[in-house]
Design a protein that fits this description.
Blueprint: H1 8-28, H2 39-52, E1 56-57, E2 73-77, E3 80-82, E4 97-106, E5 109-118, H3 124-142, H4 150-163, E6 167-168, E7 174-176, E8 183-187, E9 204-207, E10 210-212, E11 218-220, E12 227-229, E13 235-237, E14 240-245, E15 248-251
Antiparallel strand pairs: 1-4, 2-4, 3-12, 4-5, 6-10, 7-8, 7-9, 9-14, 10-13, 11-12, 14-15
Helix pairs in contact: 3-4
Length: 256
């Protein structure tokens, strides 16, 4: 499918959807990310907030291998990479890391962003994992300029991550965002400079490195959704939705 170039009006609407997630991540969730809370309770807080802002939680009912996704957020703990199903049986404990990936629909346009939080005090390697993953997202965004190609984004992310002794997940990638949660193009977090589609003004992209402590290999659990590291080591996930405006990236899911 061809890449859908957005107008400035459409970019503004996509930003409105993303700003709900930005407020959620900056102002709401930090008060609740602590030992003793279940991922089901976190999901309820997320769904309630999205609805309170006049939006729809975009992940509810997304078709899966077996069953539709049942919740308003994907919540993945420690070795969880993406698409973790919230559960009353998964209780956060001191030293965990928890990745939250949220999608909103507002006036027919989608927002999409992810963040990994520390739960209480975490060990030094977990701190480094979060710092490197977050920084790799920013480095990927910096490469998203007119004149570059998608491979330049993936190359920048991969080079930075691997220089710090971590690995980039290859089975899942960033993507276009707009009137659908996932639009073309696919935006891998690894790659070669100068390869792939040319970056153009009006593109809206989700840049979302998933970074593993050990091997980049992952596996899906029997629920048909939850993706975990194959070696059981930890994974972090940071995502922003951006638009290419006047040749440069504009971060839509960063709090104004």
């Amino acid at each position: 499918m061809p890449v859908i170039i957005k107008t400035k009006e459409e970019i503004s609407k996509i930003k409105d959807a993303n700003q709900i997630i930005a407020r959620l991540y900056e102002n709401i969730l930090p008060k609740y990310i602590k030992p003793g809370i279940s991922t089901k309770e976190l999901n309820k807080i997320i769904e309630d907030y999205i609805i309170s802002q006049g939006a729809i939680p975009g992940t509810i009912g997304v078709p899966g291998i077996y069953d539709p996704f049942p919740a308003g957020a994907c919540i993945s703990v420690n070795e969880g990479v993406v698409h973790g199903i919230p559960s009353g049986e998964i209780i956060l404990k001191e030293g965990d890391i928890v990745s939250i990936d949220t999608v909103t629909i507002l006036d027919g346009y989608y927002g999409d962003a992810a963040i990994t939080y520390p739960v209480g005090e975490i060990d030094d390697n977990a701190k480094k994992l979060l710092e490197v993953t977050k920084k790799s997202r920013e480095i990927g965004i910096e490469a998203a300029v007119v004149g570059n190609r998608l491979g330049d984004i993936g190359h920048a992310i991969q080079r930075y991550v691997e220089s710090h002794g971590f690995t980039v997940v290859r089975d899942y990638a960033g993507h276009g965002v707009g009137k659908a949660m996932h639009e073309d193009p696919c935006v891998p977090n690894y790659g070669r400079k100068g390869r792939g589609l040319k970056i153009e003004n009006g593109m809206v992209l989700a840049i979302e490195p998933m970074v593993n402590e050990g091997s980049y290999k992952v596996k899906m659990l029997n629920d048909g959704w939850t993706v975990v590291t194959k070696d059981g080591k930890r994974s972090a996930h940071f995502e922003h939705s951006i638009a290419i405006v006047d040749g440069k990236p504009l971060v839509l899911s960063k709090l104004d």
